[in-house]
């Protein structure tokens, strides 16, 4: 024994250097904030009183091992201290199968780790108020829309990618006041945040008083953020994600065996969000408000899809760059996407949707492309609020689609429109408000289509109507004045007439090919100039007299029209590059020769008149 003497008392050094035993204790954790479905709390610390057990006062660390809805999967969470990885601390979620069935997730059972960092103090919230110009309205007059979000780039302005919340109110937007207050942790914001209130300054004191507040919305603080890309490959990966509210990167689900993706706390994904699973049946992301890239969803068994708030009048609260719904034959409703607002592209391919006319009611404008493709039972398009498209619109391969009423408010398309191979479509008159298409408009291979009418279109880049087996008539188009490039009518076996274009004056060219019953072209009777006129293989056409005002062409080709007996182009006086009239069995060649002699000024090698009726004289 070693003793030191100080005054009258001895000091026993063995007591000073005693090492207390490290102990753990496993308690049952009820369902609650630490474990949604219950689980175990693993407590650790030093046995300071050496009684062989870990007392409550000796606990210095706690880990939770939580049960999940995925059979056999456990999740363990532990704190991450402040440091370089997480300047404000955070948590580490570890998940895996409970292989030994002891209810504890041991280290060798962990198959996925997801680290989330606590967000710093709330960044500045910015808000704006503007006139509400889209349905649904709050009142008959004086509707306003308040939008709010986090000022991520610090420019003091609410940019589109920063929008997180919105609310409508009945007030003049020019006199609406806003105010902000901290929102504590509670039912409105599970992690706390900011409440944005709007109203009218009734007492004119330049302050929004409590009794003047008419509407309220909340910008909630993301609790835990993961930095980087995440790929979900199994049920354990899904459970490890449940504590994350914000992902600064891409999130991809490529899990062939996962049947459900339910992430009630996920608020934003700043990259792309891709959800693809052969066994996936249910996707629920109720808190999601923002996806910086494309939200892409596919899965042959997926039947339940809820993204964002599910109230019927939900505001435009889920901003995504683009939305792609592909290979979803079991999905019969788009109601769960009512709050989703794509800004650029929207694709709906191979779904089980039959009718969803007003799904995207907060989408008046898309800056990219709309494509609705191979939806086997779709009878009506879900885009009745869409007014303007910055790219193209493609409606193709939808065998049950009967009308285009689902696009009735579409007015302007900066790209083209393609309406192709829609088996039940009988009319395109649903596009009644379409006024301008800056690229092509094509109507192709729609076997039940009876007529092509566009009541409001004034200008087109080009028009192609091809391969529509039952099409009988083109027109009316009372507002159409100009088609910059060409009009092409090809392989429409029952098309007989193009009429009722009273304002139409100009087009770049006209191609008429294999329209067996076509006889009436009077819709073009005011056109005076075209670059080219090509008339080929139209069995019933007897003359071109309804093009009576045509004065000048660069190229003329009239070929293989067996019933043609006269050209009958009385105003044509100038053909400059090519003159081909061939293979018209009943057309006296002299009519072609007379017209060429009077109008053609181009190279002689491009003057071709042959295989017509050379024996019948022309009676002037």
How would you sum up this structure, described in words?
With 620 residues, this protein is mostly beta strands. The chain is built from three helices and 44 strands. β43 (574-582), α3 (589-599) and β44 (607-610) form a beta-alpha-beta unit. The longest helix is centred in the last third of the chain and has 11 residues, at 589-599. It is elongated and about 125 Å long. One of its GO terms (molecular function) is calcium ion binding. Keywords: Glycoprotein, Signal. One of its GO terms (cellular component) is cell envelope.
Number of strands: 44
Q: Termini separation (Å)?
A: 142 Å
Overall average pLDDT: 86
**Global structural class:** mainly beta
Q: Into which percent range does the helicity of residues fall?
A: under 10%
Give me the number of helical elements.
Answer: 3
Q: How much strand content do the residues show?
A: 35-45%
The main sheet comes to:
30 strands, mixed
| Radius of gyration over C-alpha positions, nearest whole angstrom | 36 Å
Uncertain segments: 1-8
Shape: elongated
Key traits:
620 residues; mainly beta; 30-stranded mixed β-sheet; three-stranded antiparallel β-sheet; 44 strands; elongated; disordered N terminus
Summarize the structure.
Among the domains are: 22-116, no CATH class; 125-220; 251-343, no CATH class. Helices cover 3% and strands 40% of the residues.
Write the layout of secondary structure elements.
Blueprint: E1 3-6, E2 9-12, H1 13-16, E3 22-29, E4 39-46, E5 59-67, E6 73-80, E7 90-97, E8 112-118, E9 125-131, E10 143-150, E11 163-170, E12 176-183, E13 193-200, E14 213-220, E15 224-227, E16 230-232, H2 235-240, E17 246-248, E18 251-254, E19 260-262, E20 268-269, E21 273-276, E22 282-285, E23 290-298, E24 304-307, E25 318-328, E26 340-342, E27 346-351, E28 365-366, E29 370-373, E30 388-389, E31 393-396, E32 412-413, E33 417-420, E34 436-444, E35 451-452, E36 459-466, E37 473-474, E38 482-490, E39 497-498, E40 506-513, E41 529-536, E42 552-559, E43 574-582, H3 589-599, E44 607-610
Parallel strand pairs: 15-17, 16-18, 17-20, 18-21, 19-22, 20-23, 21-23, 22-24, 23-25, 25-26, 25-27, 27-29, 28-30, 29-31, 30-32, 31-33, 32-34, 33-34, 34-36, 35-37, 36-38, 37-39, 38-40, 40-41, 41-42, 42-43, 43-44
Antiparallel strand pairs: 1-2, 3-4, 4-5, 5-6, 6-7, 7-8, 8-15, 9-10, 10-11, 12-13, 13-14
